[in-house]
Amino acid sequence: MSDKQFNVSTVSNDQPTEEQMAYAYVFLNELKANKQLEQDWQDHLQKASVPQYGIQDKISYLDNFLADSGYDTTAEAVLTLLKTPWWNDYIKSRQPNLQSDRFVQDLLQDTHLYKEWSQIIQECTQSGNLEKANQFLQNNGYDCTAIQVNASFQKMRSQNLNYWTGIYGQTTLKQGDGEAQVGPAVIVYGNSTVSVGPDKLFAFKYEQGVLTWTTEGRGGLEKNPHSGSITFSQISQPKRQDSFVGNIFSGTITYPPGSKNWSGTYNFNGKIGDPADDEKGKVYTPPSVNKSSVQQLADTLAPYVMIGFAIQMMYPVAAKIFSGAKVLWEKVKEKVQSQAKEAVEKTAQERPEVPAERFSESTTVEQLRDSLQRTADPARQEEIREEIQQTEQAQEKQYEEEERSVTEEGKNTEVLDDLMKLKV
């Protein structure tokens, strides 16, 4: 890290404003859904912990990152929120449960329920209160809260690739300090099929939000022309110089020596959007893809992302104890109400039926055990036992990820706390 990366400014000893606290809340929530932002934040914290730089320079460095990422807040405001008892209560309250998992699965398979939920959330945005949404869940037999439903959706996206279905056509490849160039499109058709450029991948794996594949594939005729690892994320807060919001991915792709267009390892980044037109010698998408069916499913999921953002923004207002909650709501109210209205309009449109199995693959162990008790078919019992084992393993990895997240959050607090104690 060079000195040029620091934009030194006067660091105030004043307490964070309510507006700064409000955007600190938005930022910390975005870290949960946007793994690329989380990694960039971790990298900045690590650089800020290097002793050779001055305290004010380090704080300004972190403040600049927050501002450039689209958040009108400061490192001190982030630390202040992390250390409040309210934040710890919030972390606990947003843990998903069996009922919130079941609601998300039902929501995406029941057109009428999806429309009702969208309408309820839109009505909630008029008051900035989630009470009506929570009551709707209870009245319909789901013992959970709106914030837990949002958490279930995010959790399931880490376990089930169907939730990232879409055409990621705006991609770039970058090698070292070289210029970024147009990369191959990534198309997620669901859990069973993914294509990169003109090729559908063989034997890929998807765990904890990360898609990986090797050149070996399944072997024989089913080999891949490259290997890679990409992490899916979601941007809900546009950056200062980029207005995009939606699904993204980031990672690496490696082409073996002798490959036609590229060779070596590249940083591989992409976002939802139309792919580039094919060029002579470069095909960015499979020639035989039915993009309309992929887009239809992506459109089915889009309203829930909007609904989730609305829930997230209304929660602190309903809690009534978060400093800056009212300021936050006034800042985002227009955007939230607009997105909620759009979600209602989208869910009102006719859409194809979504096969139940597409979104039930993230079924909880409790649900699988219940199914095991209700079936008398020995073959099906054996299948369910295998599913239980696989789901338990996936949940164990999820718990490890949660622990890692908590640990990292603790480290964030330690690094920031050390800086603020030394601030002049």
How many DSSP H or I helices? 14
Shape summary: globular
Cα distance spanning the termini? 23 Å
Number of strand elements: 11
**What is the mean predicted local confidence, pLDDT?**
80
How would you spell out the order of helices and strands?
Answer: HHHHHHHHHEEEEEEEEEEEHHHHH
- The share of residues in helices is 40-55%
Uncertain residue ranges = 1-12
Radius of gyration: 23 Å
Q: What share of residues are in beta strands?
A: 5-15%
What oligomeric state do these chains adopt? Answer: single chain
Strand order of the largest sheet: 3-2-11-10-9-8-7
Biggest sheet: strands, sense, closure? 7 strands, antiparallel
Find the structural class using helix and strand composition.
alpha+beta
List keywords for this structure.
11 strands; globular; single chain; 4-stranded antiparallel sheet; disordered N terminus; 7-stranded antiparallel sheet; 424 residues; alpha+beta
List the helices and strands and how they pair.
Blueprint: H1 18-33, H2 35-48, H3 55-68, H4 75-82, H5 85-93, H6 98-107, H7 111-127, H8 131-139, H9 146-159, E1 166-168, E2 170-174, E3 181-182, E4 186-188, E5 194-196, E6 199-200, E7 205-207, E8 210-213, E9 227-235, E10 246-255, E11 264-271, H10 291-319, H11 325-348, H12 356-360, H13 365-374, H14 378-422
Helix pairs in contact: 1-2, 1-4, 2-3, 2-14, 4-14, 6-9, 7-8, 7-10, 7-11, 9-10, 10-11, 13-14
Give a description of the structure.
This protein is an alpha+beta fold. The chain has a domain at 162-295. Helix content is 53%, strand content 12%. The chain is built from 14 helices and eleven strands. It has helices at residues 18-33, 35-48, 55-68, 75-82, 85-93, 98-107, 111-127, 131-139, 146-159, 291-319, 325-348, 356-360, 365-374, 378-422, and strands at 166-168, 170-174, 181-182, 186-188, 194-196, 199-200, 205-207, 210-213, 227-235, 246-255, 264-271. The strands form two sheets. A seven-stranded antiparallel beta sheet has the order 3-2-11-10-9-8-7, with no helix packed on it. The protein has a four-stranded antiparallel beta sheet with strand order 1-4-5-6. Strand 2 (170-174) and strand 3 (181-182) form a beta hairpin. Helix 7 (111-127) runs antiparallel to helix 8. The radius of gyration is 23 Å and the shape is globular. The two termini are 23 Å apart.
